[in-house]
Amino acid sequence: MSVRIGPAATMTVVAGAAALAWGSLVERTQFTLREVDVPVLPAGAPPLRVLHLSDLHMAPWQREKQAWVRALAGLRPDLIVSTGDSLGHPDGIEGIRAAFDRFGGIPGVFVWGSNDYFGPQPKNPLLYFRGASAAPANPARLDISALGSYFTSLGWTDLNNSAAILELGGTSIDFFGVDDPHRGFDRLDLLAAAVDDLDESRASAPGLSVGVAHAPYRRILDSFVARGADLMFAGHTHGGQVCVPGFGALVTNCDIPREQASGLSVWNAGRRAAWLNVSAGLGTSIYAPIRFACPPEATLLTLTPR
Known about the structure:
It contains 7 helices and 14 strands.
């Protein structure tokens, strides 16, 4: 018995194949710099340029991505914020060094994502519609110690369940961050102690308070706002990775509202609010090398006086 496929079904198959080809062969490497202004600095403070990098999921053979990130050093940012998932392969540190060596001497802060700890595994993408992804079984451990040593050699500050004060452009900035919330590595109790230590060591009120995390879970963002954050950085969502034009992200891989899965927005918690920048990230898992209506991105934020 022969089965005839109607014109509508044929067009659907063709459109699906075209979208798959576009997302895997073209858009996945259409690296984009998103630029935004954020009015968060004290009155009279000079502007600060912050380069937000996230979710590179780096493999050693990804030369095009390495070259594109390396060229961002020409922007001469005042600060780098790395929100995790830098690694995407057991030898990913080789690609990270190739991409980041030109950033040495530029102040930076970083936190970990789960893929800095564990190597990628094949997954059924439909499972993301059921909620945040579960921990993988028997994952390969990645060399997160080498990655941390490399970042600190660049002059960057480790904010995993920690806090620090940086002076940038004459503005004293409080930074606090958590280890990966997606795998429950965040320790808000340790963060509270670290912030208390900052309060005791500081002679005057900070000009700006910044929270940094990999995965933008509501509990983390609410805690940051409660601790006085004016601005928050996160990644993890990949902006949905596969989006519907005019609709946006279908999934977020955490509990953040879909409409805040990428870009700059305002996060409200009780009577307080803070700016939130969620990066759509620069990479994908090597087992899901596709993006659609969601190009890979870095963000250059220009912080200006309120």
